[in-house]
Amino acid sequence: MGKYKVVMSGKTWPNAYEKLAEHCDIQMWEGEGKIPQETLRDWLRDADGFFNIGHITVDEELLEAAPNLRVISQSGVGYDSVDVEACTKKGVPFSNTPGVLVEATADLTFGLLLSAARRIHEGYEKVKQGNWETVFGVDLFGKTLGIVGMGDIGSAVARRAKASGMNIVYHNRSRKHEAEKELDAVYLSFEELLHTADCIVCLVPLSNESKGMFGEEEFKAMKSSAYFVNAARGGLVNTEALYEALKNEEIAYAALDVTDPEPLPADHKLLQLSNVLVTPHIGSATYETRNRMADLAVQNLLLGLEKKPLVTCVNEEVNYK
Ligand code: NAP
């Protein structure tokens, strides 16, 4: 394998970096915040590979600026910031890292629900203030969990919820018969699910179709005792509508790992409410999982540079044969 030039839009784990550095000359963004698109375009002019770290926008303009690109490899599963159609048109295979982050993200998602239901974080804050008082929450046992987006992560959340004695209902655009068998999950229309579920977890990929799918009408349709968890993408939720629903107690509580805007400014009005819990997009953020993601991303990158089939290619039609 000759030396290829690879651009990295952020840092990765030492093992993954060393493996890449054996075969490639690396240009890596180490600056504050996201790499500016202009800098990225400039760096990609003579690059063979792009290691997309940190939800960087990949559009036609960027691809035009990178005539030698053989592969784009992303560490992460959601690819709403990538124009996959444009990659395909340019014949550039694009890969993400599905599978390896499922259990970690499901743990965080169910953890958010549990923390919200039992006010774990609120209890700890009180203890730190010397206030040893009972903080009341609600049972999850016997309640109905509505999963919107019963894919890899949704199913893993459903398994955790079932083990905790919850009933499962779900909504996808198409039915998922294995989940119905394995988890006694009941398929409902989106509207039925909103009315029926005690707790609702959103794990739908962000797309033009799903953007803002939780808005004023949807929050009004939920039970006033509903717990809402978003662990997918902030853009699925209309933040203003969620704020109003929480403020007016149209729903009971929201726990969010993703927000719009993201990062959520510390003085954002959502954070003034007492019935909201927010974590900084840490669904897959465990040492083991992030290492596995980086390893898989590097594997895809090295295969693509050699024009060999990527393991987890999103646009299979242009994957190398
Ligand atoms: P997945 O296996 O592709 O599952 C997505 C599910 O959503 C599918 O079952 C799909 O079924 C359903 N779906 C898609 N569009 C829909 C729509 N418009 N309405 C209703 N259901 C829809 O994906 P995954 O691996 O579980 O990941 C899901 C999302 O989680 C990712 O796209 C990513 O944005 C997010 N994520 C977040 C973190 C984090 O750190 N918080 C970590 C990993 C992933 P149908 O096609 O039948 O509709």
UniProtKB/TrEMBL annotation:
SUPFAM superfamilies named among the record's database cross-references: Formate/glycerate dehydrogenase catalytic domain-like, NAD(P)-binding Rossmann-fold domains
D-isomer specific 2-hydroxyacid dehydrogenase catalytic domain: residues covered: 16-315
GO molecular function, a single term: glyoxylate reductase (NADPH) activity
Keyword Oxidoreductase found: yes
Domain D-isomer specific 2-hydroxyacid dehydrogenase NAD-binding: 110-283
Keywords: NAD, Oxidoreductase
The organism's place on the tree of life at top rank: Bacteria
EC number(s) reported in the record: 1.1.1.26
GO CC terms, sorted: cytosol
Gene3D superfamilies for this protein: NAD(P)-binding Rossmann-like Domain
InterPro entries: D-isomer_2-hydroxyacid_DH (IPR050223), D-isomer_2_OHA_DH_cat_dom (IPR006139), D-isomer_DH_CS (IPR029753), D-isomer_DH_NAD-bd (IPR006140), NAD(P)-bd_dom_sf (IPR036291)
Presence of the UniProt keyword NAD in the record: yes
Family the entry assigns: Belongs to the D-isomer specific 2-hydroxyacid dehydrogenase family.
Stated name of the protein: Glyoxylate reductase
